[in-house]
Design a protein that fits this description.
This protein is an alpha/beta fold and about 375 residues long. It has three domains: about 5-115, no CATH class; about 155-190, no CATH class; about 195-380, von Willebrand factor, type A domain (Rossmann fold, 3-Layer(aba) Sandwich), CATH 3.40.50. About 45% of the residues lie in helices and about 15% in strands. The protein has helices at about 5-20, 25-35, 45-55, 60-75, 100-110, 115-120, 130-140, 165-175, 205-220, 245-255, 265-285, 300-315, 335-340, 355-365, and strands spanning about 150-160, 160-165, 185-190, 195-200, 225-230, 235, 290, 315-320, 345-350. The strands form two sheets. Strands 6-5-4-7-8-9 form a six-stranded mixed sheet, with helices on both faces. Strands 1-3-2 form a three-stranded antiparallel sheet. Strand 5 (about 225-230) and strand 6 (about 235) form a beta hairpin. The radius of gyration is 24 Å and the shape is flat. Residues about 75-100, about 110-115 and about 375-383 have low confidence and may be disordered.
Length: about 375
């Protein structure tokens, strides 16, 4: 298989994996092997080669269709039992009609697909063109940003675990008093609550749209276990607005609800308001709290530090995403960032699609640092 074709299909497999699919290396190799015997310029062949190898169970099918549509054609796949594969071929005139067949096939497929997504994954969203931002927005929409699971107080039947006396006795009575197998139970699990606080001040305006789209993906994945707030000169709850199924509709509703877009930042006061009104009553207790901000605090940095310490005591984990962290030579020298960082469990960037995928992994409980290990700046935090 041509190198360009391989890179394109591996990039597609990464998109499926980022969306929560089971696209492990073995399945990717199976897909590439299947394409060796198919026509890579036939959208139907490409669609079914990926679907039959990258989907592990029926729950993966709708996710696969969304990723295929977003990656190859930029469309949104409609749900159905057997959705037709989207058209991905765009005919083009090659400058050299005498080119070898292999080069022609690879060049046409590369032009016909969204292979440039691999380049976009690591690009700073503040430096993207309008078309590139639209492409990244489509890929953010299919991210699986589900939270890690926690143990519930409730029990469910299980093959092993704690003895379940009630079920054991009922089973014995059904058998007329004859001895039967012991029945067991184990604690159920449920998603841990996630709270996202997105800074929409002027210094964060190049990144606010992408971060709010990430919050929408998290709300779509986590349902009622996800709460979203914006922070600027005031705190605004956006949970209801971001529960729209369509990402663009959700963003329009959120934009209309935010009264202080591109204003100043008073994170300390707003974090105190959040904890007083919502956090202490339960939203922050035992939750994963994600704060997306560059830390440019125009208010009292000491107040921000106090409220971050209070938040850290209540929350299960505190994650801070600062887009400026990705810049070469970055140091958390601003007063707000320096006051907040000692109370942060995971420090990441969130400046690009790849960084948002990393943020999704942190929320899901993967790749995180042990709590209380502390941060000393760029060398001790997640990239």
């Amino acid at each position: 298989m041509e190198r360009d074709v391989t890179e394109t299909m591996v990039g597609f497999a990464r998109t499926v994996r980022a969306a929560g699919g089971n696209a492990d290396p073995e399945r990717v190799q199976a897909m590439l092997a299947a394409l060796d015997h198919l026509d890579v310029l036939d959208p139907s062949d490409v669609y079914w080669a990926g679907r039959l190898t990258l989907c592990a169970d029926p729950g993966d099918l709708s996710r696969y269709d969304r990723c295929f549509a977003a990656y190859f054609s930029g469309a949104t796949a409609r749900p159905g039992r057997r959705p037709p594969p989207p058209v991905v071929v765009r005919r083009m005139t090659l400058p050299d009609p005498g080119a070898e067949a292999g080069e022609e096939r690879a060049g046409e497929l590369k032009a016909a697909t969204a292979s440039a997504v691999e380049v976009l994954r690591d690009r700073d969203v503040a430096r993207l063109s309008a078309a590139e931002r639209a492409e990244v927005a489509r890929l953010i929409a299919v991210l699986d940003a589900g939270a890690e699971r926690r143990r519930s107080r409730r029990f469910a039947p299980a093959p092993a675990g704690r003895l379940d006396p009630a079920r054991t006795v009922r089973e014995t009575l059904r058998r007329g008093g004859e001895t039967s197998l012991l029945r067991h139970r184990a604690h159920r699990t449920r998603p841990r609550r996630v709270v996202l606080i997105v800074d929409v001040s002027g210094s964060m305006s190049p990144y606010a749209d992408a971060l709010l789209r990430f919050a929408h993906a998290a709300a779509r994945s986590g349902g009622r276990d996800v709460e979203v707030f914006s922070a600027g000169t005031r705190l605004t709850r956006l949970t209801r607005e971001l529960r729209h199924r369509d990402a663009d509709s959700a963003m329009a509703a959120a934009s209309a609800a935010i009264p202080d877009w591109s204003g100043g930042t008073r994170l300390g006061e707003e974090l105190k308001e959040f904890l007083d009104r919502f956090g202490q009553r339960g939203l922050a207790r035992g939750s994963i709290v994600v704060i997306a901000s560059d830390g440019w605090e125009r208010g009292d940095a000491e107040l921000l530090g106090e409220q971050m310490a209070r938040l850290h005591r209540l929350a299960h984990r505190v994650v801070w995403a600062n887009p400026h962290k990705a810049r070469p030579g970055y140091e958390p020298l601003t007063a707000g960032m320096a006051a907040a960082l000692p109370h942060v469990d995971d420090f990441t960037s969130g400046h690009s699609l790849a960084a948002l995928e990393e943020l999704a992994r942190l929320v899901a409980g993967g790749g995180r640092r042990p709590r209380g290990s502390g941060h000393t700046g760029k060398g001790s935090a997640h990239a």
